[in-house]
Hints:
This protein is α+β, with helices and mostly antiparallel strands.
Amino acid sequence: xxxxxxxxxxxxxxxxxxxxxxxxxxxxxxxxxxxxxxxxxxxxxxxxxxxxxxxxxxxxxxxxxxxxxxxxxxxxxxxxxxxxxxxxxxxxxxxxxxxxxxxxxxxxxxxxxxxxxxxxxxxxxxxxxxxxxxxxxxxxxxxxxxxxxxxxxxxxxxxxxxxxxxxxxxxxxxxxxxxxxxxxxxxxxxxxxxxxxxxxxxxxxx
Length: 206
């Protein structure tokens, strides 16, 4: 169906280390792609609280990178994730971030309904990489997690991600790329427009 999310996450490309197929890593959620359309519709109807996460990646960031939270699992507060909070440059920024997280269930009820049905999901948000911006090679201490990116606003031009030495280019919105962020990875946006994706962090099946 044309309105459903389109997939380009390995089935139409040679598979490589660090990238995964959605049906392989979340096999119990066959309707997830359709449900994410509802999430994206909700997101587009809201005024998002964008937070500057530059301090969290200061040593590897060239340019601008902002994140807007839309969902956060209660399991994070119980230590499921090793790194539950981003670094912020000021107490004011941290206070604003905490306030936004506490209000997520009220601000984004559709997202909460969708992601609460998927126990593996840790958190979700919008990730916006600015024009002419780069996240240089880095990795995270998340050995039990994977990241799913869904294209929201993808500009024409050279936009992509590299994981463990292998590239994936962004071609269009609704494209899906799943990768292991515990491996060395980088992202770039060499265009004059911001690149925005839906970022979903979820647990691997152990």
